[in-house]
Write a structure and sequence with these properties.
five-stranded mixed beta sheet; 26 helices; about 775 residues; six-stranded mixed beta sheet; alpha+beta
Length: about 775
């Protein structure tokens, strides 16, 4: 009844007549109400009955991972509209304050106002705007709590119900009756489709230093837009609404399609591959695969297997790149045949080494740089992202502006070949990258909480002469600037470092993500729960990580962080090296809070230090190697991963705070309190000898180097006692601590001394 009231009061009149099934889907009496009833039932397969009404707040999905003994104490999401603030995005203890009614009233008022502002003349734009409004105001609202476990939001339940209904509309009434009655439970009813862009690593990082700082962010953001463009291209071709895009991020997407769409998907796979091959010459490939799902597959005990089947189909396609293309001439020309003139450096792009038409760019200092049209467009995008507050996604007719030997396409050409026109808008509404003309409709997405997306969408609608849906999609858009406002170079970031001037490269990702989706939801994995877990991780990496990064970029001229990418479950950040250990620690701690302190949800990281002129692709590989080393860490109790590789050492996160405290103490003693630098050298020498002993025997052993180290520290203590007894006392405490715990304390003091030494030292170390 509430839904019908909403339809009568808020949904534009032209669409109300088709929504009668909403009223009858609990007692379906015609074909369409049975479609909605079946979709609702499949989407709600996660609901577990409870003996009494649960909390009127949404239980964090992380509290549902693993067995009962593994789960943390119950936490709920606050009843707040979605925004990037402490009091909104971090789960809290269950409260019985009695203010739930007031909180729900505020959420309803915000949702009602947002829906009233939607464009009413275009159904796809209206649905997309409604979807964004639902996310903002019902992300924290349980879809059911009365005698049900409230662990899936109204947003996730509604969008998956809509997606399933869109796939089931072609079934006749007898088939729907059978499915609702539990008959024909193993007959396929929908397809779960997965897409994965491969080649990302080389595409982003295998560029030269010339223009890398500008172009990197553009390349990374383009890959996000390309994933979106391909997913929407497939949905439009299949006649499906945007609700059927279950997840898109990190170069991956999942969508639901009708069961009879398999033949069309095979054709689309070839079309997508051909377009990518023409625009990127084989650098990027979209692996597309799908699995057939029956109504039985939506049961909690079976959905995990169905999800795995879809991923296995994607991985199989990834192992046979471009095998779906049936045009040998095209493959010979673009993949197996020669390209470019060869040997002519003057015709080669200085950034990506493309051998073909380039533009000559002359710098004020007299240097020349050659840049191809594609790299030029990446740098243009990276420059404008710096000031962007809104991203515009415009729906266009697919435009095949194909590259040729005398013309290389831009990123806009590639996106438009899939029917997506992208634009960027500043906070004041002025266009930074204009939207291509001819859009049928568009979506304006705020990338943070600033501004008024609804009002800006109305202004943009008048400018584009098409309906524009407002929404929010958090994006980590943190680009460092010099005082002049120009994007900072890697050399400049290196120079802002405290102590030794080096550039830091940080890579992090969630440990055992597949297990979280598989074994973590074992026996309880459903479509809505998987969607909820994906949404939660996206909120953290695409939203909250950006807030942590922005704290380190206070103002142009003082910025220290460049967030190349953060999304899905991983991130890649460069910056002044001394700022990154603290950032990695904050990300780890906040992920722990965000995941309700679940012991199985943790993250590892690799942090490496380099000269600003060190090749970026090599720095990325080094950081990836450090990340792998952190994931190889095995503790004495057998627990693995959950660590940071830094200074060539794998540091369990539980030891990081101690290490950081000792580093700060050593820096203070040497840089402020007058202790000699030989304190650091002594600790480093002891650590080197202890490390050798541990490598040979598995533990330190008593030997002359131990008492020699104690003797040297005692002398330091005596020499400074008259001048500064407080410092002498601290050196004495360091000496005493070395002999405890079987001399294992050196494993903390040694790395702390190395860290302190780098913070105190001046100048550049080449690497």
């Amino acid at each position: 009844r509430w839904s019908i009231t909403f339809i009568q009061e808020r949904v534009p009149e032209r669409w109300r007549s088709g929504l009668a099934p909403v009223l009858f889907h609990h007692r379906p009496n015609d074909r369409l109400s049975k479609v909605v009833a079946l979709a609702d039932r499949l989407s709600a397969a996660e609901r577990e009955s409870a003996e009494e009404a649960g909390a009127r707040q949404l239980t964090s999905i992380f509290c549902r991972l693993g067995s009962q003994t593994e789960r943390p104490p119950e936490r709920v999401w606050p009843l707040e509209e979605l925004r990037l603030t402490e009091d909104a995005v971090f789960p809290i203890q269950v409260t019985r304050s009695g203010d739930e009614r007031g909180a729900y009233g505020r959420l309803w008022a915000g949702f009602d106002a947002a829906v009233a502002a939607l464009p009413g003349g275009d159904l796809p734009a209206y649905i997309e705007g409604l979807l964004h409004a639902l996310r903002r105001y019902t992300w924290c609202v349980p879809s059911a709590f009365y005698r049900s476990v409230p662990d899936v939001s109204l947003y996730d339940h509604s969008r998956t119900t809509a997606a399933l209904a869109a796939c089931l509309t072609e079934f006749d009434e007898p088939m729907l009756d059978d499915l609702l009655a539990g008959r024909r439970a193993d007959e396929p009813v929908v397809l779960l489709v997965g897409g994965d862009v491969s080649g990302v690593q080389d595409f982003i990082y295998t560029v030269t230093a010339q223009g890398a700082a500008k172009g990197l962010r553009g390349r990374s953001f383009y890959l996000q837009m390309l994933t979106e463009a391909v997913a929407r291209f497939i949905l439009r071709d299949l006649g499906l609404p945007v609700t059927n895009l279950v997840y898109a991020g990190g170069g991956h997407f999942y969508l639901l399609a009708p069961v009879d769409a398999a033949a069309r998907l095979a054709s689309l796979r070839s079309t997508v591959s051909r377009k990518l091959l023409l625009h990127h010459g084989g650098e990027l490939y979209l692996a597309l695969g799908w699995a057939k799902l029956s109504t039985a597959d939506f049961r909690r005990e079976r959905f995990g297997d169905a999800w795995r089947r879809a991923n296995e189909a994607v991985n199989a396609a990834k192992r046979q790149r471009f095998a779906e293309l049936q045009d040998p001439a095209l493959l010979d020309e673009l993949v197996f045949g020669p390209s470019g003139a060869g040997g002519l450096q003057d015709s080669e792009c200085s950034v990506c080494h493309f051998d073909g038409p380039v533009r000559i760019e002359r710098k004020p200092e007299g240097e020349e740089r050659r840049i191809c049209a594609l790299c030029d467009s990446f740098e243009d995008l990276g420059t404008h992202l710096r000031d962007a507050r809104y991203v515009v996604l415009a729906e266009l007719p697919p435009r095949d502006v194909e590259p040729s030997p005398d013309r290389r396409g831009t990123l806009q050409d590639a996106l438009e070949s899939f029917g997506l026109g992208m634009g960027l808008t500043a906070a004041n509404g002025s266009p930074l990258l204009p939207v291509p003309p001819g859009a049928a409709r568009a979506t304006l997405l705020a990338i943070d909480d600033t501004g008024d997306a609804a009002q800006e969408a109305k202004r943009l609608s008048r400018r584009l002469v098409c309906p524009v849906a407002p929404g929010v999609r958090y994006t980590v858009n943190v680009t460092p600037r010099k005082a002049s406002g120009d994007i900072a170079t890697f050399d400049w970031l290196q120079e802002q470092s405290r102590g030794v001037q080096r550039l830091g490269v940080l890579r992090m990702d969630v440990d055992d993500l597949g297990d979280l989706f598989g074994r973590g939801l074992e026996g309880e994995a459903t479509l809505s729960r998987v969607a909820a877990l994906s949404s939660a991780l996206a909120l953290f990496f695409e939203g909250w990580v950006g807030e942590l990064c922005r704290e380190l970029n206070p103002a142009p001229g003082k910025d220290r962080i460049y967030a190349i990418y953060s999304g899905g479950d991983d991130l890649f950040i460069v910056g002044s090296w001394d700022a990154l250990p603290g950032l990695a620690w904050a990300i780890r701690n906040d992920l722990n809070r965000f995941a309700a302190a679940h012991p199985a949800v943790h993250i590892s990281g690799g942090l490496t230090l380099h000269s600003g002129k060190y090749p970026l692709y090599q720095a990325a590989e080094d950081a990836e190697g450090a990340l792998a080393a952190a994931k190889d860490l095995v503790r004495a109790d057998g627990r693995r991963k959950d660590a940071l590789s830094f200074l060539g050492l794998e540091i369990p996160w539980e030891a990081f705070d101690d290490l950081q405290s000792e580093q700060r103490r050593l820096v203070r003693l040497v840089a402020e309190d007058g202790a000699d630098r030989s304190l650091l050298r002594t600790l480093l020498q002891l650590y080197a000898r202890a490390s050798h002993a541990i490598k040979e025997r598995g533990k330190p052993y008593w030997g002359p180097w131990m008492w020699q180290g104690a003797y040297r520290l005692k002398r330091m203590e005596d020499q400074i006692r008259k001048r500064n007894p407080k410092v002498a006392e601290e050196i004495g405490s360091i000496r005493d601590s070395l002999g405890k715990e079987g001399f294992r304390r050196i494993e903390v003091l040694g790395p702390a001394a190395r860290w302190a030494e780098l913070l105190i030292r001046k100048g550049v170390e080449e690497r």
